[in-house]
Amino acid sequence: MKHLISPMDLTPEELSELLSLAQDIMKDPERYRHVCDGKKLATCFYEPSTRTRLSFESAMLNLGGSVLGFQSADSSSAAKGESVSDTIQIISYYADICAMRHPKEGAPYVASKHSRIPVINAGDGGHNHPTQTLTDLLTILELKGRLSDMTIGLCGDLKFGRTVHSLINAMVRYEGIKFILISPEELCIPAYLKEEVLDARGIPYKEVRSLDEVMPDLDILYMTRVQRERFFNEEDYIRLKNSFILTPEKMKLARDDMFVLHPLPRVNEISVEVDNDPRAAYFRQAGFGVYARMALIILMLGLKDRIPQV
Ligand code: NCD
Question: What residue's CA is closest to ligand 1, atom 12?
């Protein structure tokens, strides 16, 4: 496993190995405490982040490794005009693995082409977010016990939401997956995903404009925020930002074994009153992100041999 730029960089076998390793770490985290001793993770974040960066750092620290990095373009030499390809060549001397987030689609890919260490895409513009997908898959597996035979509702900003794009790419590889795409017309999923992924694989999906009518059909409801920073004008954002708000009333329409996921941050698309519903799984989901990233770091650094046998 050299770099992780898109969720498709992992074969289904590698993905399944990663998820079972993550589940194993969850059962016995102590066993993994020294697997990354002496190794360094660089977090190069050119865009804001709370969960992704801190869960990466927490993951590396849990494994006995160390972390270094920057958390905004302003605090790196990008502010002086340095290119990502130059930056990664330097980081390759300072760290063993790098997680990079960038507002421009394809920037981590460009970095990977100039890097001597593995590069992980921690979110590139409105394109992909493969480690959020690992988190999402681990969450679904933990909550539902399976990744196949499921109806998944994706709701909100399906146009700019990179987590949705990556999740679709990953989920279509499992059997019996159906999608219900819930968004305003202007925020529907990009044509390339419909044509090259959903239609090309014959995956059943429907597009709807209201949450209520589909709530009873869902196994998973994946909510997303309207991605303000990717809009060309503020008026459109203001008009669309409250398109969908999940409330306790809407939750009454859902099955008892339906779970609500959200990559977070939430703005106002899930009312805080939903948080106490046992089916609200978004905070637990953020916690699973640490284990998914621990497993990813071990596999990408090729350190499985260092895991002590039981
Ligand atoms: C997401 C992202 O950055 O794409 N956040 C995250 O990593 N958990 C979702 C978002 O910002 O809306």
Answer: 225
Spacing, Cα 21 to ligand 1 middle (Å): 24
Q: What is the mean pLDDT of the chain?
A: 97
Residue 157 and residue 29 in one domain: no
For ligand 1, the distance from its centroid to the CA atom of residue 61, given in whole angstroms, is: 22
Q: What is the CATH number of the domain that holds 61?
A: 3.40.50.1370
Residue 75: predicted pLDDT: 87
264 CA closest ligand 1 atom index: 8
Burial of 258 (0-12, 13-18, 19+ CB in 10 A): buried
Q: Contact 3/112 with Cβ under 8 angstroms?
A: yes
Domain count, the chain: 2
Q: Is residue 1 part of a domain?
A: no
Which positions are annotated as active-site residues?
A: 51-52, 80, 101, 129
Answer yes or no: do 268 and 233 share one domain. yes
Nearest CA to ligand 1 atom 3: 123
**Is the per-residue pLDDT at 1 higher than 70?**
no
Would the pTM of this model clear 0.70, i.e. be above it? yes
Least trusted range by pLDDT, from 61-65, 75-79, 246-250, 251-255 = 75-79
Q: Which structural domain, as residue segments, surrounds residue 169?
A: 131-286
Phi then psi for residue 149, to 5 deg, are 50, 70
